[in-house]
Amino acid sequence: MAILNQGQKVIVTIVKKDRAKRIVQAAKNAGAQGGTTLLGNGIKMNEKRRVLGIPVERERAIILTLVPDEIYENVLTAITESVNLNQPKQGIGFVIDTKNVAGVCHMLGFEAEKGASEEEGVRDMSENQKVLYDLIVTIVNKGDSDEVVEASKSAGAEGGTIINGRGTGIHEKAKLFNILIEPEKEVVLTLISRDKTQDVLEAIEVEGKLNQPGKGIAFVMEVERTVGINHILNRMVNEEFREVKR
Questions:
Q1: How far from chain centre, in Å, is Cα 124?
Q2: Selection from 171, 208, 212 nearest residue 187 by Cα
Q3: Tens digit of pLDDT for each residue in 175-217?
């Protein structure tokens, strides 16, 4: 079995559903082997969840692209330019480093083009901003994601992305005609500045009742880089400007 111990990154891009194909194609053109697209719903700060009592769903595509360190700058640049991620309201992207990777034997012989300049690629937004980010992943039973999103927003998050899934745990043993039923789950992705991570995580735990058996789990992953968070930058600048005026 081929396992890569290092040198791989996951680029996570969240955009409107109709832009997913452009991102996948741009990544492949830049040297990526492909990508995985998940469908979900996006929730933003102060966004109405219902209109005339009817739920409003903002469909989002979540694209996972695994790439070697040698080309991830080029791939991230291609993704960013393909859907104008650096422009407001176009989506967001972030990078997570991997510890071990299995099932990628086709990538073991990969060699990056040595002529590529190290100065090429998208600017490191995280370094320029001097803001560090975490990704909070919350997995709850279907129907409970609203409480998670509202709790995270009340604690300072900008919103979240909800993905539908299935899962079983030791507290879930429902059967139908002696067949084990896999309960439907909802996965909430919350990108948050690191100084707010603990507050948001605690709010999710309380409002989502995660301290009760069978209600769900939440965990935090460190984000290495981000793109497409112009609205956060603008808010931070405005807040600093108001403080100076005082």
A1: 17
A2: 208
A3: 666 665 567 888 999 999 999 999 999 999 999 999 888 888 8
